[in-house]
């Protein structure tokens, strides 16, 4: 296993190119199962979650050709092979294999998903949706068995606003008979991206981006070409890096409207954020950053996926900041690691309370999940000395060529083979 090393304290500038969105890509790839001819997807991020999903499609008979950041998926020879174990456990988004395979084959066996450990992440709303569409769903030894004689439209009210459940129900509903209405649907940009692909494939969907989505089922979906939207969480991570150490850091290929909640907070802190059509220019402020309070909410509120990265920046603000995660009960595993680096921060319930003005020093730390990794990278860029981060495989799930992108803007970062003891400890923690 590798570890990542960062020598902090260097000012960062130049241009960073944002990749396609992870949380779109991981839904779009399974969505291709529903087509009757090849689907081309452009601007695919080079991340391990994408590679794992491509492998899952190949396991069920999909033919995939890769060309730089484009894939062509030929779904014609796919079969309803059970996927109870193995790769499905490596990521969260394998749950989209349920909706897509149910939609095409009217049956599927899919192991419970993996993904970041952020406290309980039930999938009861996905299952409630599948059942409303006519599926029988059982959980047998950690795998979900789904079977339907026929799928029919239904009115489904989500008890919690869920990105995954909204997309999964869409995948199962687009080829069902009749109309499906999803109420209290999630409104994240990635949902609109998935609906754009499904519509290009011939689906009839209205209301994406609002909390009521209507789907009129069709019998067949066909191939098409689709370009993934830019990754707002990767872009947000680089905006925070710009606010921490940036001297005119230009973030290219971004949709600024997707990041309004972060832009507002960074400006409130005193960072210089300028927005263009598809670019953002971010610089560290000349004085000290100001403290702010932040609460994560569903879109268009402040995204939970940027809570951990922002926490590292808040260690540098003058005064007390409180950051509260209303989406997940345990998304604070990065806090102990930040403390090792000298951050004055404690967790109370769902909030992290930061004393501010912390002098961060390089230390040996461990990424326990994807955005904890991003948070430690940012802390490492700020800290004096060298920070060593293990658990790099979490970061590789969601950041495309992070090392190269950081080096490209002037960061001193490199990878090394982790020592045997570090690898052992990392594997133990993963069990
Ligand atoms: C692959 C992917 O796109 N992952 C994103 C997706 O995760 P994911 O789709 O798992 O997140 P959801 O939007 O479903 O979860 C939101 C909240 O609802 C709860 N819930 C969800 C489903 C359900 O059936 N029952 C239930 O109680 C969850 O525990 C959580 O507290 O959206 C999250 C919230 O923006 C992001 O942090 C993740 O990066
Ligand atoms: C929580 C995340 O990912 P996942 O849902 O794939 O675990 C994330 O992208 O921050």
UniProtKB/TrEMBL annotation:
The residues forming a coiled coil are: none
Q: Which CDD domains does this UniProt record tie to the protein?
A: UdpNAET (cd01555)
Q: Which GO terms describe its cellular component?
A: cytoplasm
State the InterPro entries in the record: Enolpyruvate_Tfrase_dom, Enolpyruvate_Tfrase_sf, MurA_subfamily, RNA3'P_cycl/enolpyr_Trfase_a/b, UDP_GlcNAc_COvinyl_MurA
Pathway membership: Cell wall biogenesis; peptidoglycan biosynthesis
Q: Which residues bind phosphoenolpyruvate?
A: 22-23
Q: Which reaction does it catalyse?
A: phosphoenolpyruvate + UDP-N-acetyl-alpha-D-glucosamine = UDP-N-acetyl-3-O-(1-carboxyvinyl)-alpha-D-glucosamine + phosphate
Q: Which domain of life is it from?
A: Bacteria
| Catalytic residues of the enzyme | 116
UniProt GO molecular function: UDP-N-acetylglucosamine 1-carboxyvinyltransferase activity
Q: Which SUPFAM superfamilies match?
A: EPT/RTPC-like
Q: Which residues form the Enolpyruvate transferase domain?
A: 7-406
Where does the protein end up?
Cytoplasm
Query: Which PANTHER family would you find in this protein's record?
Result: UDP-N-ACETYLGLUCOSAMINE 1-CARBOXYVINYLTRANSFERASE (PTHR43783), UDP-N-ACETYLGLUCOSAMINE 1-CARBOXYVINYLTRANSFERASE 2 (PTHR43783:SF2)
HAMAP family cross-referenced by the UniProt entry: MurA
**Physiological role:** Cell wall formation. Adds enolpyruvyl to UDP-N-acetylglucosamine.
Write out the similarity annotation.
Belongs to the EPSP synthase family. MurA subfamily.
From the Swiss-Prot or TrEMBL record, give the protein name.
UDP-N-acetylglucosamine 1-carboxyvinyltransferase
State the species of origin. Answer: Sporolactobacillus shoreae
- Source taxonomy lineage? Bacteria, Bacillati, Bacillota, Bacilli, Bacillales
The primary gene name is murA
């Amino acid at each position: 296993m590798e570890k990542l090393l960062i020598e902090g304290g260097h000012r960062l500038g130049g241009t960073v190119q944002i990749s396609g969105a992870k949380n779109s890509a991981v839904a779009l790839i399974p969505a291709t199962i529903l087509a009757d001819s090849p689907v081309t997807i452009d601007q695919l991020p080079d991340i391990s979650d994408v590679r794992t999903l491509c492998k899952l499609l190949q396991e069920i008979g999909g033919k995939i050709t890769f060309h730089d950041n484009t894939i062509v998926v030929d779904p014609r020879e796919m079969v309803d092979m059970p996927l109870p174990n193995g790769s499905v456990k490596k990521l969260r988004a394998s749950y989209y294999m349920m909706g897509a395979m149910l939609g095409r084959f009217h049956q599927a066996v899919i192991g419970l998903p993996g993904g970041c450990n952020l406290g309980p992440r039930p999938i009861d709303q996905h299952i409630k949706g599948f059942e409303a569409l006519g599926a029988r769903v059982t959980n047998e030894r950690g795998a979900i068995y789904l079977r339907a004689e026929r799928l029919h439209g239904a009115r489904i009210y989500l008890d919690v606003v869920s990105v995954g459940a909204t997309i999964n129900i869409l995948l199962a509903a687009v080829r069902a008979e009749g109309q499906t209405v999803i109420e209290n649907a999630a409104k994240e940009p990635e949902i609109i991206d998935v609906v754009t692909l499904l519509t290009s494939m011939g689906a009839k969907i209205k209301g994406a981006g609002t909390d009521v989505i209507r789907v009129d089922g069709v019998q067949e979906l066909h191939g098409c070409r689709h370009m993934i939207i830019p990754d707002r969480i990767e872009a947000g991570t680089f905006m925070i890096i710009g606010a921490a150490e940036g001297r005119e850091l230009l973030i290219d290929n971004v949709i600024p409207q997707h990041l309004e909640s972060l832009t507002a907070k960074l400006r409130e802190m005193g960072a210089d954020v300028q927005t263009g059509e598809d670019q953002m220019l971010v610089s560290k402020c000349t004085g000290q950053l100001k403290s702010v309070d932040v609460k994560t909410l569903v879109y268009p509120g402040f995204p939970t996926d940027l809570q951990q990265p922002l926490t590292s920046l808040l260690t540098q603000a003058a005064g007390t900041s409180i950051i509260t995660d209303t989406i997940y009960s345990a998304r604070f595993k990065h806090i102990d690691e930040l403390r090792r680096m000298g951050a004055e921060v404690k967790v109370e319930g769902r909030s992290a309370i930061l004393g501010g003005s912390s002098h961060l020093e390089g230390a040996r730390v461990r990424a326990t999940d994807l955005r904890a990794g991003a948070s430690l990278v940012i802390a490492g860029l700020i800290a004096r000395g060298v920070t060593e981060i293990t658990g790099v495989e979490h970061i590789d799930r969601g950041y495309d060529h992070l090392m190269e992108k950081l080096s490209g803007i002037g960061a001193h970062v490199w990878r090394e083979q982790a020592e045997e003891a570090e690898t052992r400890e990392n594997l133990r923690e993963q069990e």
